[in-house]
Amino acid sequence: MFFQQRTNVDASISYFFGCASHEKAVAVDVLAGDEPWFAEAARKIHVEITHVIDTHVHADHYSGGRALAQEVGAEYCLHEASAGLVKYPVRFLRDGELLEVGNTKIRVLHTPGHTPESVCLLVTDHRRGHDPWFVITGDTLFVGSVGRPDLAGREVEMAGVLYDSLRTKLLSLPDDLEIFPGHQAGSVCGAGLSGKPSSTFGFEKRFNPSLSMSREAFIEYVTSEIPPRPADMDAIVRANLGVAA
């Protein structure tokens, strides 16, 4: 497997990875304007981008996912909870679905809370073995923090949903499994994010304060430290859904 993590000036993080032997690749959480970088990266190592995935409908930046998918002829993917909201063709992902990209296998984990359609991507390299290698956690789990629960409104309700997603989908995974989040320090998508762009579940269970709380304490914690809403959020969300201004 090849793997590239692209950090951006707005503290968001994108991913490009896949199977070189089968010449297939995936792009995750692409920013608008970064489409040429991904297309060129694919050309350099002679792979085809087959899937472009957004872990959720972004509210802090314009997505380049749909434009990249159109440029390279890939499927643009969002979780099916966004059906009825997006106004363009999408490959809707289901919880538990397995995407096969050569020897790279991606298990879709629906982890609502930051937004209703948020997903994490559990990635296995079958040339290494049959156990998962890492998880791209989007805006569900960060290094040192978790995603903000208020962007869809109903922040108390969504904080509880986020707590349940973390407990049922992520924290039962092996401690040595690597975490690659959608943001690092400087982002408005969570409070208290680390500047470190990766971690492990074991490290986060030990040092991430939000992961050792009761449900009630967690809800209070994440709803009391909500950063200001992203600038131009409504316009960004409309654009990322394909809704006319």
Comma- or semicolon-separated keywords:
single chain; 245 residues; alpha/beta; Metallo-beta-lactamase, Chain A; 6-stranded mixed sheet; 6 helices; 27% strand
The largest pleated sheet is described as:
6 strands, mixed
Low-pLDDT runs of 5+ residues are: none
CATH H-level homologous superfamily name: Ribonuclease Z/Hydroxyacylglutathione hydrolase-like
Radius of gyration: 17 Å
The chain-level mean pLDDT equals 95
β-strand percent reads: 25-35%
Strand order of the largest sheet: 1-2-3-4-5-6
> Helix content range of the residues, please?
10-25%
Q: What is the CATH topology?
A: Metallo-beta-lactamase, Chain A
Shape-level CATH architecture: 4-Layer Sandwich
The SSE string, one letter per element, is EEEHEHEEEEEEEEHEEHHH
Task: Give the tally of β-strands.
Answer: 14
Question: End-to-end distance, in Å?
Answer: 41 Å
Shape: globular
Helix run count: 6
**Structural class by secondary-structure content:** alpha/beta
Number of domains: 1
The level 1 CATH classification is: Alpha Beta
Topology:
Elements: E1 2-7, E2 13-19, E3 24-28, H1 35-44, E4 48-53, H2 65-72, E5 75-79, E6 91-93, E7 98-101, E8 104-110, E9 119-125, E10 134-138, E11 141-142, E12 145-146, H3 155-170, E13 178-181, E14 199-200, H4 201-207, H5 215-224, H6 233-241
Parallel strand pairs: 3-4, 4-5, 5-6, 10-13
Antiparallel strand pairs: 1-2, 2-3, 7-8, 8-9, 9-10, 11-12, 13-14
What do these coordinates show?
Helix content is 24%, strand content 27%. The longest helix is centred in the middle third of the chain and has 16 residues, at 155-170. Strand 8 (104-110) and strand 9 (119-125) form a beta hairpin. It has one domain (2-227): 4-Layer Sandwich (Metallo-beta-lactamase, Chain A), CATH 3.60.15. It has six helices and 14 strands. It has 245 residues and is an alpha/beta fold. The strands form three sheets. The chain has a six-stranded mixed sheet. Strands 7-8-9-10-13-14 form a six-stranded mixed sheet. It has helices at 35-44, 65-72, 155-170, 201-207, 215-224, 233-241; strands at 2-7, 13-19, 24-28, 48-53, 75-79, 91-93, 98-101, 104-110, 119-125, 134-138, 141-142, 145-146, 178-181, 199-200. The mean pLDDT is 95.
